[in-house]
Amino acid sequence: MTTALAPQTAEPMTPQPPPVVHAAMLLWLSAVAAGAFETVLAVGRQLYEGTSGVVDLLPGAGLRVAVFAAAVVLATRMRRGQNWARLTLAVGLGVFGTLSLVVGPVQWLLHGGSIAEAVAGADTVSWLFTISRVLHLTAVLGAVTLMFQPRANAWFRSR
To answer: What is the C-alpha separation between 156 and 82, in angstroms, rounded?
Structure first.
């Protein structure tokens, strides 16, 4: 009696990242999706209200699209174990990106803005934007936290 054996491939197995690194990548992608959603809401509102024209909005929207594309590339590279991508995400978007998301609301509060009045006067688009911004910030902070967990650190050291 003969037994057929499955042929073995010569390709080495690519080591997979630990779950925390994979989860961090998914959170970065979620942050990008939230940021894109916020951009669409903001641009749509400005066009609808007539406060800005398409030409006025193109530079800002173009910059955001470039940042989103860079974040996706960096998250993919980070998942592959490239530490430079992890550090770039942590500093570039984890620190400076987060600051860019919170500076406006903090300044508004410091200049006498009232959360109660904002809530009372919020329309559907404002609520969608706020929820998206909270999810965006949560995803960024979660991704940065996961990227520096002990298992993630070991993964990047081994690469």
So the answer is: 7
Q: Are 136 and 101 in contact (CB under 8 A)?
A: yes
Asked if 34 and 139 count as a contact pair (C-beta separation under 8 A), the reply is yes
CA dist 80 and 95 (Å) reads 22
Query: Residues 75, 29: contact at Cβ < 8 Å?
Result: yes
Q: Per the confidence metrics, is the pTM higher than 0.70? A: yes
Say if residues 16 and 155 touch (Cβ distance below 8 Å): no
For 40-50, the pLDDT digits (tens) are 999 999 999 98
Of 7, 37, 154, 132, residue with least CA distance to 86: 154
Query: pLDDT tens digit string along 55-80?
Result: 999 999 999 999 999 999 999 999 99
Structure-token match 């961090």, residue found: 24
Q: Which amino acid is at 8?
A: Q
